[in-house]
Each structure stands twice: as C-alpha cells, then as structure tokens.
Amino acid sequence: MTTRDSATGAAYALRDILPEETTTKDGRLVIGGRDVAELAAEYGTPVQIFDEVGMRRGIRRLIDGLAERWPNSEVLFASKSLPLVAMYALAASEGLSIDVAGEGELRLALAAGVDPARIHLHGNAKSDAEISLAVDSGVGTVIVDGPDDIRRLDRFVPEGRVQDVLIRVIPGVDAATHATMQTGGHDSKFGLLPEQAHALIEELRDHPRIHVEGVHLHIGSQILDETQFADAVRQLRQFEGLETYDVGGGLGVAYTLDDVPPTVDAYLDAIVEAAREVLPEGAKLLIEPGRSVVARAGVTAYRVSTVKETSKRFVAIDGGLADLVDIGYMDLRVSTLVAERADEEPDTTVQLVGRQCESGDVFMDDGRLHSPAIGDTVVAAATGAYSYTMTNNYNGALRPAVLFVANGVVRVAARRETYDEYLALHAPALGVDWSAAPERA
Questions:
Q1: Which residue among 193, 357, 373, 412 is the active-site one?
Q2: What is the Cα–Cα distance from 251 to 229, expressed in whole angstroms?
Q3: How confident is the model over 346-373, as pLDDT tens digits?
Q4: Active-site residue 215, yes or no?
Q5: CA torsion, points 335, 259, 326, 225, in degrees to nearest 10?
Q6: In this prediction, what percent of the chain has a pLDDT beyond 70?
Q7: What is the pTM of this model?
C-alpha cells in the first residue's frame, strides 16, 4: 500500500494528484508555466486547463512500457474520455491509435487528421450511419458487439474490400468500481457471451469481406486493483489461435488522497504476465487507456461566488453538475485548493458546492480549503477525464473553454460556448405564436 507524505502546503500535499508540471510561484498555483488564477481571469470560469507536457509524458510511459513487455502491441486512446480535435491530434502525434464510440467522435478524429487505419469503432448500438461512415472512411477495425453489427457491415462493406473486426466478449468479471462504470459482468449490455462469440467467429470464418482479427474485452473504468485486469485477460484462454487480443482499459486514478491506484508499471506487469499465461506467443496485444491518460493532466478552475454559514460553512463556486456531472452521477469527490494561496495549509472546513439546482451538486463533503472568500480561484484537481465529455447546459450553463498549456504557452483546444450558440438550437421557435395550440391540420 502506497502512502503519501503529510508535509505542509496544499499544493505539495496534492503533488501526486495535480498535473505533473505543477509548481508554485509566490504562493500561487502554476501549471505548465502559467499562473492558474491569471488564466481563469483571462478566459473566464469555469475553465479546464491541461498540462500538455505531463500528458505527453504519460502517453509515452504507456506505449513504451507495453512495448518493452510485449513487443507486438498497440495502445489506443479511449477518446470518449476527452473528445477534442486537439486531443485526437496530440494523441496520434505521440503514437496512440484511437478508440471512438459513435459518429461524433469518429468525425472529430477524422477532422484532427488521424489515420483512419488506426481508428477502432466501438459501440453497443451502432447505427447505419456510423457503420457506413466507418467503412467509407477506411476505419481500420470495427469492434463487433453482436450480430446486428455484422448485418450492417455485410450491407456496407463493398465487394473487393475486407473489413477487420474484433468480437467483443463478456469476460464475467465484476470490476470493483462504481456500478455505472462496470462493463464486464455477466449481465453487461456490452458484448457477447463466450459461446456466442465462438459461434459468430465460426460463422464468419469464410466471409469474403469481414475478417475476424481477434477478440476484445473491457471490464470497466476507475479500477484500482490491477489483479482484476489480469483476471479478465485470463478469460481469453478459451479463444485460441487468434491474431489480436484487445484487453480494454480502465486503469484508475487518484481523485483524493485516499485513492491509491496501481502504477503504470504495476498495471502493465499484471496484464502482460497474464497474457503470457494464456495468449499465443507473437499475438498482438492491445490496451485502451482513457481516464489514466487525461484525468491527472487536467484541472478545472472556478470562481468562488458565495460563502455562507448555516448548519455548515458552504462555499459555492460558479460551476458544478454542468461541467463535472460525475459528482452527481457517480458520487465523485475531488481534491481542491485555492490557486492564489496554493502553498498555504488548509484552515477551514467547508461544504464545497456547485451552482446547479441539485442537492447532489457537491464537490467536497466537509473538505478543507485555505480561508476561502468570494472571488477566489478554486481548482479541482484530476478533472481531465469525462468532464468536458459530459458538459451540459443545466440551468443555462455554457460549456467551458479548454486550454492546453506547455512551457508557458497557452493553446485553446475549445473556446467557451456563447449564449448565441446556446439559443441557436431554439431558433425554430422564435417568431412562432405560442399563445395557443394550432388548429387541427
């Protein structure tokens, strides 16, 4: 069990949770060479800030670490964790292939210039449009979730072309994570039971346009016990003689000081040791990290808008469920600090809450901050994964800007949504007389 030092100073205490390229200057939080409070003032809040250098370093640890252990390997970025054109381009530039789940993510990846041959299309309910676009674009691999995917591919893959596929199997591993993030149990909506997968592989053995390259599995997300990944890999012993085995992603990260996730080395060791037990020598091994690539690299900066004391001391910030839905969806609690006084030891117990009209809009229960006051910049650490993905307009909130910072340089990956854009979807209703229901046509 890894322990963390209890040295003074908020930023120092959170050094394993904040981005790798985090420092302080004159007591203020600095990420990627830029003062976080100054960025919040310039770009508005909420704003998501990513440490680009640290993120690239983390990607290389995964790619190089897996290749050292299993040379015939490939690492895919699970892009649903941060679907930004900038992120697709960055991931591809560092050697990651791309995992997309749906037409929107596929279009973003293509717009970023990702080689279609290095894209894998996922999804348990793919549409005709998605399959057609994937085939027309030359997507390298389609993850088949069931027979309906095959029927669609049969219609859209033209004569003279061969589409590689992986068959998704249910490994029967109940991951020790939040129920909303479990994907590999016996009752999962994803994939096929092993006997069904075998039957489909046999059915497709002589198909002229669909080539079964191998199998795929995934047990869930935010998993802190590396032995569960090994357990899942061992379920593949029943699929002998295939070219490729994709064992998914799901490596967890630290959101609070109580979380102790596996190191990348421990995670890769567990997977590869199990793979050596059950997979054919020379087969290709794939993993699909997402959260572990982007979570720690990203923080979200907010402005304190209200401080009040009733039964508790409530500190309210100008974001919440609209930009970090997991605080309500999966009861996520995050680590926070005041950017202007990042070196100061927390001295105040607070209930840190968001501005959305839900009681579940809570960032910290009885958390600690240093003398929070209206106008302060509060930073929520390790919010780089799934936060932008699930941004929404609850209570009329606007989607935040996203910044990538490196060596003191800021690049805008996504600008802040405007109220004109928010209202644009309602344009058909403008100018209509809504005073009464229309007469029967």
A1: 357
A2: 9
A3: 999 999 999 999 988 999 898 999 999 9
A4: no
A5: 160
A6: 98
A7: 0.94
* Model pLDDT, residue 38: 98
Measured between alpha carbons, how far is residue 179 from residues 79, 220, 296, 352 in Å? 21, 9, 22, 25
Neighbours of 3 (CB within 10 A): 7
Identify the pLDDT of residue 373: 97
Residues 235, 275 contacting (CB under 8 angstroms) = no
| Residue 18 DSSP code | S
Which CATH architecture is the domain 52-293 placed in?
Answer: Alpha-Beta Barrel (3.20)
CATH architecture for the domain at 10-51+295-424: Beta Barrel (2.40)
Q: Which of the residue ranges 207-211, 330-334, 357-361, 395-399 would you say has the lowest mean pLDDT?
A: 330-334
- Confidence label for 161 from pLDDT (cuts 50, 70 and 90): very high
Contact (CB, 8 A) for 343 and 27: yes
Residue 169's identity, in one-letter code, is: V
CA distance 74 to 97: 7
CA angle 381, 14, 334 (to 5 degrees): 35
- At 310, list the tokens: 């009733």
- Name the residue with tokens 């070196």: 343
The full set of domain ranges for the chain reads 10-51+295-424, 52-293
Q: How far is CA 84 from CA 7, 78, 87, 109, 184, in A?
A: 37, 12, 5, 8, 27
**Each residue of 19-39: b (16+ CB within 10 Å) or e?**
bbbbebeeebbbbbbbbbbeb
Mean pLDDT lowest among 79-88, 183-192, 419-428: 183-192
Q: What is the pLDDT of residue 182?
A: 67
What whole-number distance in Å separates Cα of residue 367 and Cα of residue 258?
Answer: 13
Euclidean distance between CA atoms 59 and 405, whole angstroms: 16
For residue 135, which of 161, 109, 112, 98 has the smallest C-alpha distance?
Answer: 161
Mean pLDDT over 298-323 rounds to 96
DSSP codes, 184-209: SSTT-SSSB-HHHHHHHHHHTTT-SS
* Cis peptide bond prior to 194, omega within 30° of 0: no
Which residues are paired to 381 by β-bridges? none
Mean of pLDDT over the chain? 93
